[in-house]
Each structure stands twice: as C-alpha cells, then as structure tokens.
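Example 3.2
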Amino acid sequence: MAKSNLPEPETAHEEAEDPTARMSFFDHLGELRTRLLWAISYIGIGFLIGLYFSREAYTFLAQPMMDALREAGLEDRLISTSPLGPLRLYISTGLYLGLLIASPMVLHQVWLFVAPGLYRNERRAVVSFVFSGVFLFLAGTAFGYHVLLPLTLRFLTSMFVQGGFGAFISINEYFDLVLVILLGLGLIFQLPILIFVLSVFGIVTPRFLWSNFQYAVLIIAVLAAVITPTQDVVTMVVFMAPMLVLYLVGIGVSAIVVRGKKQAAGEPGRSLGGVVAIAVLIAVAALAWAGFHFGWWSGLKW
C-alpha cells in the first residue's frame, strides 16, 4: 500500500500559522536586509528632525541645572572648554532625540521581521512585553528628570557655595551627567521585565524573591551608593525607593507567571497577588510620604 504524501494535520496547522516555515535561509537574509534598511532610514530621518530641534531639546535638558544655579545664588550659565563643544553637543542631542523619535518605527520593523515566526499567543505576549518595556523606560527617565536630577544638582551646587567656589560648568560634562542619570534610571526601571524573563525560564519564583527581600534591599542600597553621582543620604534614598517598589512589582509579575504555568499544567496554585499588592501600596504610600516630608516633590515642574 502506497504511503500518503499528505502532511500531518499538526504539521499543516503549524505551517499555516508560521509562514516563515516555507522561507529559505536566503529569504530570511533578504527580509532582514529590507528591515535593516528601513530602520536605518527611519533613524536618519529622526536624526535630521532631532538635529533641527536640538537647541530646544538642550534648553529643556539644561533647565534643571539653571534652576539649581539660581537657587544657589550662582550665575546660571554653562561654558564650553572647546571650540567644537557646542557643535558636538547639538549633534549628540540631535542623535539621541532622533533615536527616540525613530524608536516606534524601528520597533515596528523589528516586529515585522519577528512576528511571522511567532504563534498568535506569542505575538500577544511580545506586544505586551515591548509596550511594558517602553512605558517603564519613559517612566524611569521622567523620574530621573523631575526628581533625582534636581536633587542631585541642588546638592552639587551647594558644595560650590559652602566652599566659596565659582561655578564654571562645562556643557558637555553636564550632558554626560544627564545621560548617566536618565538612561541609567530608564534601564533600572526594566527590573520587572527582567524578573518576568527569569520567571518564565523558572530561574526565580515569587516565594524565592519574597524570602530574599532583605538581601534585595542590601543589593539595591549598594547599587544606589555606587551609581548615584552624589554621596548624600537623601539622594541615595530617592534612588532606592523606586527600585524597591519595582522589585515588589516584579514579585507580583513573577506570581502571575508562576500561577499561569500551574494553571496550564492543571495544578492548583496559591496566589501571592494580595500580599504583593498590599506591599506595593505600602511602598508607594511610604515613598509619597517621604517625598512630601523631606520636600522631594516641592518645586518640581511637571
């Protein structure tokens, strides 16, 4: 009896959901080349737009420094120590602003390349993953600009007044400081995403994260002491507070992942969601109280 050449139902279903299964290696390379060219084009267009608005962008970034200098009774003026300093500054500002402007289109090209090889449920997970990452990154940079950067600059300018020094601050050095704080906090705010990935692969569990909370506080305190540009306790506490809240949010995310795995396996799962939610609310309330008590939120321009 001749063997049937018809594909198995499962194989046919998988190929119907995954059109890339019929693409050769060179087809994938051609698709990758197309997406890269489009992404580079978007970045180039974004750079031109960012370069056009680079002066306004730098004025926005320099505003916290100007406010801190005026509050300290110092001359609110930045200097350049090189003839090429302003040009290099505007190009750098335009490049970073262009990357920010082009990032949705670049992510869309990445999505167009990756999405055909994913199943429907995986596509939903990736979309949620990307949107959560972008939201947390923007939240981190906003926290850095409105809270941590003004506190850091007030502390640093107070050292000028106490020592009787004149303030001649280089625009490029200040821009480097702004990048360290804003990009650093944007990356640190990805902590729940990191915990999500580790939980998916079974490396961590919510019970493990909760039982080792005291060690997490110690590690966060050490990171705050190393990363913060100043050594005053207030700035370190402000840096630690959102990281602790994000760690608690990460425990909640891990609990959701583990519970979903157990439900998929047909096992009853105990939920830690209520405990984590209460802990997050307490942490947020403590952060808000400390901000109002110590004046962290006073004078902020939103």
